Records
---
Amino acid sequence: METVQFMTIADTAEQLRKKELSPVELLKSTFKRINKYEGKLNTFITLMTEIAEKQALGAEKEILSGNYKGALHGIPVSLKDIIAYANVPMTNGSRVNPEYIPSTHATVTEKLLDSGAVIIGKAHLHEYAYKGPHPYYGWTKNPWDLSRVPGGSSSGSGSGVQAGFGLASIGSDTGGSIRMPASLCGVVGLKPTYGRVSRYGVTPLSWTLDHIGPLTRTCEDAAILLEAISGYDTKDDSSYKDLKWDSNEFKKNTSLKGKRIGVPESYIFDSLHEDTAIAFQKALKSFEYAGAEIIPLEIPELNRLREAQSTILLSEAYSFHMHNLEENADGYGPNLRPAFETGQFYTAESYIQAQRYRKKTMQVFKEIFKKVDVIVTPTFPDIAPEIESYEKEVSFWRGKFTFIANILGLPALSLPCGLSTENLPIGLQIMGSPYSEGEVLSIGSVFEEQEGYYKVLPNESMWE
Amino acid sequence: MNIELLKNISNEINGRTFDSALEKQLVLYAKDLEIVLNGLREVSKEFPLALEPAPIYSPV
C-alpha cells in the first residue's frame, strides 16, 4: 500500500471499490502514522480508535458484499472538535466545559457516516475557533517547521491532512479558519457558499459568518467531500432548499481558455511578504499560460469591510458566550477571554451599520462577477509566523484576504501555489460568485495539475 | 478608549461584573474597537435616507 500521506481520496476510493485495498488495512496504516508522529504534531484532541475500527470493519464487509456506497466509503476523515459526534467528548478546544458529551451527531457528521466515511477523531483547534489554542492543549505544530504556527482555527485539520493522519478533515471557517491552515500547511481548503453546508451540531462562533467545509490533499477530493456534506437541512435556517451540489459540477480540465480572473491589485500588494508576492505573481503567469485572462480590479469597498467583519463577529460571539464569560471565566484561555469580552462594547447601531455595509458590498461584488469568473488573491499575506512571536500579537488581522468570502458568503478555495525561501508553503485563494463551487474547484484543479505543488511534501523525519 | 468608560458600560449597561484582571488586555483591544466604531460611523454616511427598507442582511 502507498504511504497514506501520498494518497488522494479519488485514487484510494478506486482501490477500495475494486477491492484492491481494504478499509481496515487503510485505517491501520493511518493509525500507525498517527501513533508515530502525533506526539510531535499534536493534531488531535480525541482519537476515536475503537469507533473507527468498527466503522472500517463495517465498510469492509459492505464493500465485499457488493454494497459500495461511493467515493468516501472506508475513507478515514477527522472532525474539528467543535463538530458534534454523539457520545464522544467535544471540548471546543476550551476548558469552559471540557466534559461535555453531545447526545446527537452534527448534520455534517451524519452525512459523512451515511456516505460510509470512517471518523478517526476530533481534531485540535484554536479555542472556540478563534485567536489561538488554549494553553491546556498547547499548539498544533506546522508539519513544515515545528516552530511555526499551522494556521487556524482548524489547526489540527490542516496539520493532520498534511501529515497523512486521514485523507481529509472537516473544519469550520468564520474569517479564514479553513483556508489559513490549508495555506500554511500546504493542503487544499474549501469554504463553501453560505447556506451550502448545514451548521447544525457545530458550536457557533458567529452565526452569520460561520461556514463548514473540507480540508483535503486536492481540489478533486474537496469536490468529493462537498458532495457528501452539502444540502438542505431543516435544522439549520441558513441552509437553502434549492442547492443541490453535484460533484459533476467539478470538471478536470486542462485549459482555462475564456476564463476571466480578477485581481484586486492595490488591495493585495500593499502589505505582502516578498516570497508571497513572488509566488502570487508566478501563479498569475500560470493562469495566463493555461489560457485565462487576468483582469485588474479596484474594489475600494474592501478597505472598510474589515470593520464590518470585526463588529459582526465579536458582537455575535459575545452574544453566544456572555453567560459563560461571567459564570465560567476561568475556563477560557488568557488570550481568548479579553477578545470575546470586547464584543460587549459594540453598539447596536454599529452592528446594524456593519450589516448594511455588508449588503452594499455584496451588490458591488454581484456587478464584479459579471465581468470576471473568479477573483484570486494570496490566502495569507505572510509566511507562517514563529509560534513565539505570534503569541505576543494582540492583533489577529492576518485574515485580510480570507474574511471577504465570509462576510459576503462567497465560495473560496485555498490551494498550494509555491514555497518560500524558508521552504514554507504559500497558498493561493480563489473566490467565486455564490454557489459557483464547481467553477472555483475546476479552475483550482487546472492550476493544481499544471504546477503540481500538492505533490511536494514536508520532510517527515523531523516529526519523529 | 478610556478603561473607566468600558468598566461603566460593562457594570451599568451590560449587567456584568467587570473583572479588573482584564484591564490591561482590554485597553489593548479597545484601541481597535475605537477604530472600528469610527470607521463604521464614517461609512454609514454613504447610506441614503431612502424610504425603501434597509437591506440589513439576507444570506447571499
---
Amino acid sequence: MNALAAFAAGLVFGIGLLLSGMADPGKVKGFLDLAGAWDPSLAFVMGGAILVGFFAFRVAGRRAQSLLGGAMQLPTRRDIDLRLVAGSAVFGVGWGLSGFCPGPALVSLGSGQDKAVVFVLAMLAGMLVHAAAERYGVFKQAP
Amino acid sequence: MIDWAHFTPGASLLGGLLIGAAAAMLVLLSGRIAGVSGIVGGLLAPARGDVAWRIAFVAGLLVAPAVWRLFAPAIEARFDTGFGTLVVAGVLVGIGTSYGSGCTSGHGVCGISRLSPRSLVATAVFMLTGFATVFVVRHVLGSQ
C-alpha cells in the first residue's frame, strides 16, 4: 500500500512539475535570471505548493502514525551547520548552470530527453562521491 | 524587466498546488517527506524495507510525461545547456543536495511548509547561488 501511495504521489508530483513549467530548464533559468528577461512564474509554483504543504504538514505534525499505519517520519534537526549551507550553495550553482534540479530532471528523463539522461547520471555520480567521502571521513566535522 | 512572453502565473500556481498535494499525499499516507534528492539518495545505500516506496515514487515521476501525453500535447521545453556543462552541473547537484540534505522539493517545498529553520536557510542559500550563477553565466561571461 505504501508503494502504491508513493507511486501516486510521484505521479501527481510529476504532473505538477510539467504543468508548472518546472520541467522546462529554460524556464527555470529564466526565473533565476533576475538581471535579464525575468520570468517570475516559478515563484507561483513555490507559493502554490507551500500553501497546500503548510496545512498538510500541520496535520502530519500532530500525528504519530500515517494513515496507512506506518510511523510519521519527519525531520527533527534544527541546527544550521556548515554542511547544510555549503551543500545548498553548491546545489544552487549546479541548478543555475543547468536549470535542472532532481525532480524535474527525473521527469525529463521519463520523457526521453538525452540531456536529462546525462544530467541524472552525473547527479548519481555526485551522490556516490558524497557517500564515499562520508565512508572514508574526507570532510570530518568538528566535534 | 519581466519576460511577459513566458510568464504563466495560472499554470504555475496550479502546478504548484499539485506538487503540494503530492507532498501532502506522501506525508499523510506514508509519513514520508517528498524530497526527491533524499528519496533517490536512499536508493544508493538501500536499507531493508525502505526501498519499494522510493522506487515507486521515482517511477511515478518517470511515467508522468507519458500520462500527461494521454490527455494533452507535450509541454514545450528548452534544453539549451551543453553536455559538458550538464555533467558538471549534475555532479554539483548530486554532491550539493547530499551534503545539504535536500533540494528544491525537500527543503523548498516540504521544509518551508514545515517552517523548518534548516530548510529556510538552505532554500535562501541555493536560490542565492542559483541567481548568482545565472548572472555570472549570462551577464558576465555572456553565454546563453
---
Amino acid sequence: MSETRHGTSEELLALRDGEGSAWVREHVTACATCAAEVERLEQVRAGLRALPSFAPARDAWPAVLEAARRERRRQRFSVWSGVAAAAAVVVLAFAVLHRSSQPAAVDVALQKAMAESAAMEQMFESLHPDRRALSGQAASVVADLEDQLARIDAALNDTTTWRSDPDRVAGLWKQRAGLLSALVDVHETRASVAGL
Amino acid sequence: MADALPIAEARSLVARARAGDFSALEQLYRAYERPVYTLARRLTRSSDDAEDVLQETFLEVCRSLKQWRGDGSLWGWVRTIAASKALMRYRREKLREWEPLEDDAAPASGDLPLQLDLEAALARLPERSRAVVWLHDVEGYTHEEIAELMGMTTSFSKSQLARAHERLRRWLGQGAGG
C-alpha cells in the first residue's frame, strides 16, 4: 500500500501551479480528498482574479504632472549644456559638409541663439523657481510656457531635426531663449510683488 | 491583467514622454491609473496608502522611463514599480505581522468557520500575507520574483501562500476535505 498521508497545502498549491512533485501528482489521481482540494484552490484563485478593480477617489494626475515638471526642469538644467555642445558639433559638421557656401551664417546664428538660451536658463534657475509659490493665474502662465519649452526641448533632442532642417535649429534655440526670458519675467514680477 | 496599451502604442507614448511631451505622459497615467491603484489597494492597508503608492509609482515612472527597453510589457514594468513602492511601505513602517494570528492556533473543538465572502476573507489576511497571495495568484508573479520583491526567500513565499490559503479555507467556510 502506498503512503496514506494527504498532500500538504504547499504541495497541492504547487500542483495547482503546474509544479507538483511526482509523488503528489500520483497521489492526487488516487485521492479524492486531495483532488477536491486542488479543485477548490483553483476556484479560489479564479475568484480572486474576478474581484472588482478600484478607482482612486482623488485624481492624482495634477500632482504627478507638477512633480514631472520639476523633474524636467532639474534634468534640463543639469544636461542642457552637454546636449547643446553635442548638437552644435552635429550641426556644424552638417553645415561644413553640405552647405559650404554658408557655414559662417549657420554658425553665427546658432552660436548666438544658444548663448542667449544658456544665459536665460542660468538666470531662470538662479531665481529658484521650484521654491516659489505662484498665484493661480501666474501658475497657469508658467505651466503654458513650460509646456512650450518642453516641446522645443523635444525637437532639439531629436537628431532628425538637426539633420533635416538645420536652419530651423537656430530658430528653435531663439524661441527657447524667448520662453525662458518670459519665465524669468513671471518669476521676477512675483518676487517684486512679494518683496522677495 | 492584460496590458491596457498595445506594445506599439506603448513604445510611441514612452518615446514622446521621454522627449518631454506631458500629454503622452498623461495618456500613460490614464491607461494604468486604475490597475496600479487596484494593486496598491490589495497590497496596502488603506485607500490613503494606495493613493500615495499610485502617486509614488508614477513619479518613479517619470524618472525611469529611459530604463524601459521597449522589448517587454510596459504594464509588467509599471506593475513591478508599483509593487515595490507598496512593499517598501512595510519596511518603512516596520510592520510586525508575521506572528501567527489567534486563528492560527490549533482549531478548538466546535470552532465554526466564519463564512466570510472572498473579498472580506482576503481583507482579513495580514498585509504581507495578502500581498503574497495577490502577487502570486492574481498577478502571476513566481515565488522567486516575490522573494526578490520582498527581500525574503523563495521557501518563505511558498509557506506564506500555503498558510494564507489555509486561513482563507477556514474563513470561507470550506473545511478541509471540501
---
Amino acid sequence: MDHVIRAEGVSKTFGRTRALDGLDLTVTAGQVHGFLGPNGAGKSTTIRILLGLLRKDSGTVRVLGGHPWRDAVELHRRLAYVPGDVNLWPNLTGGEAIDLLTDLRLGGSGRRGRAARRAADRRRRDELVERFQLDPTKRCSTYSKGNRQKVALVAGLAADVELYLLDEPTSGLDPLMETVFQDVVREVCAGGATVLLSSHILAEAEALCDAVSIIRDGRVVETGTLAELRHLTRTRLAATTSTPVTGLDHTPGVHGLTLGDDRRTVEVEVEPEHLGAVVQHLAGHGVLSLTSTPPTLEELFLRHYGDELAELAGNGNGNGNHPTGTKKDAR
Amino acid sequence: MTTTAPAHPGQGGALTTLTGARRLTRLALRRDRVVLPVWIGSIAALAWAVVASYQGTVTTAAERVATATFSAGNPLARVFDGPASGTELGAMALVEGWKIIAILTALMASQAVVRHTRQDEETGRAELLGSAVVGRHARLVAALVVASAASVAVGVATAVAIAAPSGLGWSGAWATGMAATGTGLVFAGIAAVAAQVLSTARGANAVAGGALGVAFLLRAVGDVTGTVRADGVYVDSSWPSWLSPYGWGQQVRPYAEDNWWIAVLFVGLALALVVVAFRLADRRDVGLGMVPPRRGPAYAGASLATPFGLAWRLQRGVLGVWAVGLTVFGAVFGSVGDSVETYVAENESAREMLAVLLPGAEIVDLYYALTMAIIGLAAGGYVVQALLRMRAEEVSGRVEPLLANAVGRHRWLAGHVVIVAAGAAVTLLASGVAAALSYGAASGDLATGLGLVSAAAVQLPATAALGGFVVAAFGLVPRWAGPVTWFALAAALVMSQLGKLFELPPWLLDVSPFTHVPLVPAEPFTATPVLWLTTAALALGAVGFTAFRSRDLAIGA
C-alpha cells in the first residue's frame, strides 16, 4: 500500500512533440518495477520528471512522498539514478567520477554521519568495481561505452538509498556483466529498496521484475504484476497423448492448434480462463507428457505493439488491441 | 612506413586517403551555410564602415597629414593599430581597420577547421564517417578546403566593400583582400596542427586563439620600436613585426605600397603548417591526441567531491591559460610604457595632441588606461568562455547526474559563477601587476608603476556586468546563450575600439559596460559608474539564477 512513486495524468510537451500524454504510474515499496517500451515512448522523459530535471506540464507526481521539482535535493539524497547514456568528464578517472557522484549525495548530512556513510559507500563501491571488472584509474575519455556505463552503475548502485531509478542501465554491457547487474539489483531489493527499471530488454525485465508497466506514446497502456499480466495472455501447451486427440479445434479459447500426423502430439495456445477445460479434455486422451509455457513478457509486450510490427512487415491490417489508435511515427 | 604517407592536397599520390573528401566538403559547407556567410558579411561590413567613416571625418589634405603624423608619431597608435603608411586615405583607414579584419578572419578560419576536425572526433561523428568509405585524410582536407574558401571569400568581399562604395581604387582594395585571405589561410593551418596535437576542440581553439594573441603581441612590439621616416607620416617596423602573420598583413601597406610579394609569406607558412598537420595526422589514431592518456587516481580526493570542487577542476585549465596569457600581455605592454613616455617627452606635437585628447593627463597614465581597457575586454573574453562551459556541460549531459544527485541547481550554478568571478579578478590583477612591475623595471619608477594597478582593477565591474549577462542568457535563453554572449562581447569590442571613429550614438555606446569604465588613472576615479555596473552585474546574475531554477534541463544531444 506504500507508494514510492505515484504519477497521475502527467503530460509533457517539447515544442510540438507530445512526449507524455496523461501518464499514470504507481510503484509500490520493495518492488522491482519494470518500465517497458521502445525507444521514444517516453520512458526517459518520465524518469527525468521524477528527478525534477524536467518540469511536467500537468498532472501530479509524488516520489518518496515528496514533490520532485520543489524538494529535488532532499529527495535526491534518498534515491540514486543510473542514466542509460552516460557522458563523463573526460579528464577525470572513472574512480574519481564514481566518488564524486557518491560523495555529493552525502553533502549536508552531519559530519560524523557523513564519514560513516562514506566509509560504507566506499566499501560497497570497491566491491562493485571488482565485480563489474572496472579499471578505476583510467580517464573517462578512454572508456568504451560499456565501461562508461559501468561507472554509472557503480556510482548508482553503491549508494545506500531507498529508491533506484535505472534508465536502460545495461545498454552496452556484455552478457557476463548483465548477470552481475541482475545479482546486484536482487541484493539491493533484498535490502528493502525499490527499483524502477526502464528497459527495452524484455529478458532482463522478466528476470528481475515483480511488476511492469508498459508505456506507449506517452501513456501507460498496461500495468500490473507479472502474474496478473500473464493471466491476461494465452498459455502455450505441448502434450503427447496415448490416444489420438479429437474435438479440440472446436473447444472455446483454443488458438493455433497443431497436431502431429498421428494426432497424438499437440501444440496449442489457450486463453487463461479455458485452461482448465483444455487440460481436462487432454486428460481424456491419456496424457503421456505435458509442458505448459507461461506467456513470455515479450508476448505481453507484443500485444501492445503487434500492430506496429505488422505495419513494419508491410501487411498493414494488424490493428491490435491496444487503446491508443495512431502512432506518431507511423509512415 | 610507406613512401606516400604524407599525402596532402596537390600531391598526386595516395589518393585513397582522400576518398570522400568532396562529399565531406559539401557536408561541411552545408553545416556552415549560416555561420560562414555571417562571418564574411560582418568582416566586409566592418571594413566598409571604417573606410566610410574616414572619408566622412578626414576630408582635407591638411587633415590627412595631421592624422597620419599623429598615428605615426604616437606610440599608442603604433601599439594598438599598426605602422602608419602615409597620407593616402585608404592607407590610413586600413591601418586602423586591419585589426578587425585580421582578428575576425583568423578566428573564422581557425574555428571552421576545428569544427570539422577535432570537434567531430570529440563527438564521435568522425568515427561514424571514418567507418564509411572515407579516406584517412578526407576530413582534414574538407575542413581546410572550407576554411580556405571562406578566407578567399572574405578577401573578395572585403576588397569589394572597400573599393566599390568609396571609389578609392581597386589595387589597394585587392591588396587588403589578399592580406585578409592570407591571414585566414595561415590560421587555418595553425588550427589544423592544433587539432592534431590536442584532444579537445576547446583546447585546439584555445591554441589558435593564443597564436593570434602572440602574433598581435609580436607586431605590437615591432611597430612601437620601429622608426618614423623623415616625412613624419610613415613608420618602418622593426624585425619582430616580420615574425607575425598579423604583422605581414600590415606590411602589405595597401594604398601605399601594395606589397603583393607578401602573399608568398602567407602561402608558404600556410602550406608548411598544412604539411605538418598531415604528417601529424598520419601518426595518430582517430579520437586521440598526440599526448598519450595517463592513468590517474582510483579515488577522488576530498576536494573534488563537491559541486565547487568539480567546477574548479573543470575551470582551472581555462583560467590558467587566460591568466598566464594576460599576464604576459600586461608585462609586454608595461615594458613598452617607458618608451612611450620618452617619445612623448621629446616630441612637441605629440604632446599637444594628447593634451587635446585628454587635457591634464599624464601620457603614461593614458597609455595604461587604454591598455587596460583592452585587457578588460580580454578578461571579458575569459568570462564568456568560462561561463559558457556551463552550457557545454549541460548539453553534453554531464550536469544531469549532478542534479539527479543531492545538488541543488543554485549550488551548481554558484560553483561556476564564483570561480569565474574570482578568476576574472585574479586575471585582471595579475595582468595589472605584471604591467606595473615591468614598467617599473624599465623606467626605474616602481612607485608610479604600482599606482597603475588601479587601471586594471577598475575593469572588474564592467567584466562582471558582462558575466551577469552571460548568466542571464544561460538561464533565460539557453539555446542562444553562446551566440548571444559572443556577439555581445564582439559588439563591446567594436564599440570600445571603433565607437568614436564610427560616431556611434551615445545611447548605443552606453549599452556596452566597457564604455562606462573611468579612464583611471588618466581620469580621476568615479564611483557612480562602478556602482551601477556592479548593480547591473548582480541584477543580471539574479535573473539568470532564478530563470535556471525554473527551466527544463537540456537533455542529451
